[in-house]
Write a structure and sequence with these properties.
The chain has seven helices and four strands. With about 200 residues, it is of the alpha+beta class. This is Nitroreductase.
Length: about 200
């Protein structure tokens, strides 16, 4: 597995080749093996391909366009809207999009009590582990992935389209890479590890 960790890249250009159902299910199965706080397994995965994927991308585009005008959700991040618009292009190209829901949480745009916030953090960590399993399994199968968080700019539109009140954690794009990005720089080990 260390080789998959070394080889994994965030892919932003995809070939049009479709991915078979068995491969998708293998990727999602690996997600279900992730550790989760109190074994809550707070995840649900919704796979979008073909026409349904096109509809999801269109909803994302419309939501970003609305946020561009209103700044209703992310006014401090208005500078990041061009990046979110590029994400739409990536989503269009990728043959498969997997929406990842946190089944224990609701919208991240409302205040919650401290105790519930801690549970939300633990659930988010659990889902992060599940997504890491997904993208490493995809890498092992020769696929590229992109972990997409720009869904925040179109949050309401996306959850309405998905027909859920569960928290949308993000979307994972999956497909055969049409690029080979170089390894990105990492912080020096001495800057991030401290022994006491």
């Amino acid at each position: 597995m260390i080789q998959e960790i070394e080889n994994r890249r965030s892919i932003r250009k995809y070939k049009a080749d479709k991915i078979n159902k068995e491969l998708i299910e293998d990727i999602i199965y690996s997600a279900t093996l992730a550790p989760s706080a109190k074994n809550r397994q707070p995840w649900k995965f919704i796979v979008y391909q073909g026409k349904e994927k096109e509809k999801l991308v269109d909803v994302m585009r419309r939501g970003i366009n609305s946020e561009k005008i209103t700044h209703a959700l992310m006014k401090e991040w208005a500078f990041a809207i061009p990046d979110a618009e590029n994400t739409v292009r990536i989503m269009e190209e990728a043959p498969c999009l997997i929406a990842v829901l946190n089944t224990n949480q609701k919208t991240p745009f409302e205040d919650i009590e401290n105790e519930k916030r801690i549970v939300e953090i633990c659930d988010s960590l659990s889902i992060g582990a599940a997504i890491e399993n997904m993208i490493l399994t995809a890498t092992e199968h020769g696929l590229g992935t992109l972990w997409i968080a720009n869904t925040c700019f179109a949050y309401k539109e996306l959850v309405d389209f998905i027909k859920t009140d569960n928290q949308l954690t993000g979307i994972v794009a999956v497909g055969f890479a049409n690029e080979a990005p170089a390894k990105r720089p990492r912080k020096p080990f001495t800057d991030i590890v401290e022994y006491r």
